[in-house]
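Subject: for your reference before the review

Hello V.,

The reviewers asked for a structural picture of the protein, and I figured it would be easier to keep everything in one thread rather than splitting it across files. Below is the amino acid sequence we used in the manuscript, unchanged from the supplementary table.
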Amino acid sequence: MSRVRTVVRRSLLLVAALLVAGLFLPESGRMPVVGASKGDWHPDTFWSHPWGRSGVHKGVDIFAIKGTPVVASSAGIVLFRGELARGGKVVLMLGPKWRLHYYAHLDQTVGNSLWLDAGEQLGAVGDTGNAAGKPPHLHYSLVSLLPLIWKADGAPQGWKKMFYLDPLAHFGGADQ
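And here is what came back from the structure prediction:
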């Protein structure tokens, strides 16, 4: 019985160490659309209200020529690569600090690797999903799996800001 306890205790310590390590991994925060500059998105696109069926726009739309490469903003594990009704062709990654990186409306996805380094191409700008017929762009959302309670505010759906992070702050909103 004590052997089982030892194995369980060691397993719990290993899981706890992995969870804590994920918080301290460096996050590069690079611009996901190659060649994009400040003029390629509206600075108030994040948390714009009202916004379609979701009510609030929980990401940033970065406009570019269809087919422009989209790269991983941070290194991470690819959790999903496929199609969704509203997002069209998408890639969902788990990156450092237990954050999800969501890339939507892609013209195409590239590769099938489960791990992507920051700056590695994952797709191309498109107009798939509910962006069909609209100017090509990347919808990029950044979601914290750990609630950041101090980020919540009185905006419409403002309590969700403890999970949805401003992507412009992530990559500095600057030319990169």
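For the response letter, the relevant points are probably these. The first strand starts at residue 48 and ends at 51. The chain has a mean pLDDT of 87.

Happy to draft the paragraph if you're swamped.

O.
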